[in-house]
Amino acid sequence: MAAAIKAINAKIRSNKVLDYVCSTHFWGPVSNFGIPVAAVMDTQKDPEIISGTMTGALTIYSATFMRYALAVSPANYLLFGCHLVNFSAQATQGYRYLSYWNWGGREAQLAAKGAQTGKEATEAGA
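Request: output the structure for the sequence above.
Response:
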C-alpha cells in the first residue's frame, strides 16, 4: 500500500499543475477566499450594520498579509489576490461606514425617508 501511495505522489509531483494544486500555496488562499467574498457581498447591505472596528481590523489584516504573500519564497500571488480583493472590499466598507456615521449619510437617509413618508401621507389624504 505504501508503495502505491509513493507512486501516486511521485506522479502528482512530476506534473507542475497538479503539484501546485496539491500544495498549501494553492489551498491556503482558496480556503481563505470566503472572507473577501463575504465582504464584497456585504457592500450591498445597509451601512447601518457595518462595524467600524471590525472593518478597520480586517483592512489592516489584509494589508499585512498582502505584504506577507509577496515576502514568502516563492511569492504567493493567489494569496496576494485574495487579500487584495478583501482589502478593497474593506476599504469600501470603511468609506461607507464613515460616510453614513460621520459625513451626514445617516441624516440624509432619515430625511429622505421622512420626505417619502410625508409624500405618501399627502397622496393618501387627497
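The two ends are 85 Å apart (CA to CA).
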